[in-house]
Write a structure and sequence with these properties.
By secondary structure, the chain is α/β, with parallel strands linked by helices. It contains 19 helices and 19 strands. The strands form five sheets. It has a seven-stranded mixed sheet, with helices on both faces. It has a six-stranded mixed sheet with strand order 3-2-1-6-12-11. Strands 4-5 form a two-stranded antiparallel sheet.
């Protein structure tokens, strides 16, 4: 077959990139065409997406890909929950607000005074987090109601970029499933939720399936960049679902950790799991490719390590990630633990100091050195994964022989090994570029070059090598897990 070439844009927590995927009929090869920073901008106390510069960078990626031989289609994925607001003239009203902005704090609690938690969960199947779109929108309605008077359309971030590229306004189902405004069963906007919180439904667009061609690259962009009139495919707009599509397995039942700034720990099931147990455990149901449900737990992930490194840098201690891993390895094990999902660890800032404060508050040994802090973070992440592993198995009633750790965390050998130890389960690490592979695979399926997701996963497995980590010191980790659950740690 002729080589198929597609262009994937993936927006991560600190950087974005344009990845050119080339498919020769047997394997997919990736080429990073363009990489750029994706840092939020704080203006007058509000944290925003730097969206105008980011779209400039998207254009740079398109231009470079055109010069590199062209492409047949484009797909965009981002993290979930954030959105832009469009006015009656089709213009963006203001830069989208970043989910780490403090406007979200307390909004879930406020919403639950307006709508019962049990019914809320029964409809949406979503984990309750202040950052969810529905609570961001409630914050906007509560604190800046004048803004909504000028809004005609709300577009989630990947759909916003698709709109910039095509002029077409649509909402892709996987990103819609992160909002806590979608009915998890029938995949439509929930009028019940929106009415209860007095939020306007008329701002929301039609929900389309993952892999839908929403349009073609605008003529003015093609002329400006000398680019092909390529299709724009609504891939799984939520990066987690792109990554899940790239899990290199043929097993029907599997566990994956999409490990980046956030760790998404879950499994793929045919239908949503919404019951008293899953609601109590606060496990989320999201929609993945092909309408399957990804049943998972959102856990703060490499953010704790990334933000600690930034703090050390502010203190003129310029550690590499490899340095931090070595410092953690050299520190004494199992001295103290944190709950990675405690609210104080979500905002940017001095994570090491917050770790110390957490340990002092829970009457544990307070870590003092950089190595002790990093050891605490690493072990706590692994033990949090163990908690999620137990919860998923409790809800599904299934056992799993392998955990597939995909994404950037697959490069972190210490975290992979600790995960295997804590979960007493084999960990297969890779692919590192899972999100890009999933984005590209969905475009190839939409093009007809690949028949289905099962085949795509087989191709991705053939295109990558994975590293296997076997569990070690499991008795010590089991004892640590029991202690972890006693230190006022929310599990």
């Amino acid at each position: 077959m002729n080589e198929k070439r597609v262009l994937a844009f993936d927006f991560g927590a600190s950087s974005g990139r344009a990845m050119l995927g080339k498919f020769d009929g047997e394997k997919i090869t990736l080429e990073e065409i363009h990489r750029f920073e994706n840092n939020p901008v704080k203006i007058n106390g509000t944290l925003y997406w730097d969206v105008y510069r980011l779209f400039y960078e998207v254009k740079q990626g398109i231009s470079k890909a055109a010069l590199a031989g062209g492409f047949d289609s484009i797909g965009v994925d981002t993290w979930g929950v954030d959105f832009g607001l469009i006015d009656a003239d089709g213009a963006l009203i203001e830069a989208p607000v970043h989910y780490r902005d403090r406007r979200n704090i307390g909004m879930a609690e406020k919403a639950l005074t307006m709508f019962p938690r049990e019914r809320f969960y029964k409809i949406t199947g979503n984990q309750f987090m202040d950052i969810n779109t529905v609570f961001q929108l409630l914050s906007l309605k509560t604190k800046r109601p004048h803004m909504l008077k000028n809004v005609r359309t709300l577009l989630l971030m990947p759909d916003l970029f698709n709109y910039f590229l095509t002029g077409v306004k649509r909402t892709e189902v996987s990103i819609a499933s992160t909002t806590q405004m979608m009915n998890a069963v029938n995949k439509s906007w929930s009028e019940t939720v929106l009415n209860a919180l007095r939020l306007p439904k008329n701002l929301l667009t039609e929900i389309v399936q993952s892999g839908t061609v929403v349009g073609r690259l605008r003529e003015d962009i093609c002329a400006e960049l000398n680019a092909p009139h390529a299709k724009v495919v609504a891939v799984c707009g939520h990066d987690t679902q792109c990554a899940a599509a790239a899990v290199p397995t043929e097993d029907e039942d599997f566990i994956f950790i999409s490990c980046g700034t956030w760790s998404l720990f879950g499994t793929e099931v045919p239908e949503p799991i919404i019951n008293e147990t899953s609601e109590k455990l606060n496990i989320t149901n999201e929609t993945g490719y092909g309408g399957k449900t990804t049943f998972l737990k959102n856990i703060i992930g490499l953010w704790l390590i990334q933000e600690s490194r930034r703090q050390f840098g502010r203190e003129e201690k310029n550690f590499s990630y490899a340095d931090l891993e070595k410092l953690a390895l050299a520190a004494e094990p199992f001295k103290c633990f944190i709950d990675p999902d405690a609210p104080e660890f979500v905002p940017e800032g001095d994570i090491p100091e917050r770790v110390r404060e957490y340990c002092q508050k829970t009457e544990q040994k307070v870590p003092e050195t950089e190595g002790e802090i990093m050891r605490c973070i690493y072990e706590s992440l692994a033990l949090k994964y163990r908690t999620a592993f137990d919860e998923i198995r409790k809800c599904t009633g299934k056992e799993y022989g392998t955990i597939h750790l995909i994404g950037g965390g697959a490069k972190d050998g210490l975290l992979c090994q600790m995960t295997a130890n804590a979960c007493n389960c084999t960990v297969c690490a890779g692919p590192i570029e899972a999100t890009a592979y999933g984005n590209i695979a969905i475009q190839l399926i939409a093009d007809g070059a690949v028949p289905d997701l099962k085949t795509a996963r087989r191709i991705i497995a053939a295109s990558n090598s994975v590293k296997t980590f076997l569990p070690e010191n499991t008795e010590e980790w089991e004892k640590a897990y029991e202690r972890y659950k006693t230190y006022n740690v929310r599990v």
